[in-house]
Design a protein that fits this description.
single chain, 221 residues, alpha/beta, 7 strands, rod-shaped, membrane, protein-lysine N-methyltransferase activity, S-adenosyl-L-methionine, Methyltransferase domain-containing protein, FAM173A/B
């Protein structure tokens, strides 16, 4: 469960189901090159699976002290201390600069609150996956995930159907390039204004010189 800066709960009180974790790894195409962030990591199961099955590094953020201890213990038991880090803290205050994959299981209001942070901090190419709820204002690719019963392998349990939403946000560098584009346009406009001002001054100087020449001619006559 994750809380925002205001202290309101942003995420559900339950972890993602196991069948969703496997689907997430496939949908996000997690590899050993990835750094997976789980914002509201609960017991750390998703990060442990990413490390064990794909060789990825993981960072989990959990506001609840009990939950962070549970996740830390699970990581230790799995002997993944060198690959998975659990942070007891607020997702809104955790840097995401090195994230290549971000997993979110948050309420709609929690997702909305997190959007500015994601847009400001994520690098281009980062994959974001939201479980159950869409991120407002972002284009997504949605897949449905169905659980299978352990008693009857391969049989679909229609009561357990979940949705995962995959996103490819533009990232901070793309936003930065837009900023520099604006700077370039402003610089060009300033150059145009300066050229017009210089041209106007030259025309005034020529006009003044022309009047002085006519006056000298009149004096001679």
């Amino acid at each position: 469960m994750e809380n925002g800066a205001s202290g309101h709960c942003l995420g559900p009180v339950m972890p993602s189901p196991e069948y969703t974790v496997s689907a997430f790894l496939d949908l996000a195409q997690v590899t050993a090159e990835d750094v997976v962030y789980d914002l509201g990591c609960h017991d750390g199961r998703l990060l442990i699976a990413a490390a064990q099955k794909r060789g990825a590094r993981g960072v989990g953020v959990e506001r609840e002290l009990e939950g962070s201890h549970r996740a830390s213990n699970a990581v230790q038991q799995a002997k993944l201390n060198g690959r998975v880090t659990i942070i007891h803290g607020d997702a809104m205050e955790t840097g995401l600069d090195d994230a290549t994959v971000v997993y979110l299981y948050l309420k709609p209001e929690g997702l909305a609150a997190l959007v500015p942070k994601l847009e400001d901090e994520l690098r281009p190419g980062t994959r974001v996956v939201s479980y159950m709820f869409r991120i407002p204002g972002w284009d997504d690719h949605m897949v449905e995930v169905r659980a299978t019963t352990s008693e009857k392998p391969g049989r679909v349990d229609v009561s357990n159907v979940s949705r995962l939403f995959l996103y490819h946000p533009p990232g901070k560098k793309a936003k930065g390039s837009k900023f520099w584009w604006k700077i370039a346009v402003a610089t060009m406009m300033a150059a145009v204004v300066a050229a017009l001002a210089c041209n106007l001054m030259c025309r005034r100087r020529q006009s003044r010189q022309s009047r002085m020449s006519r006056m000298r001619l009149l004096k001679r006559h």
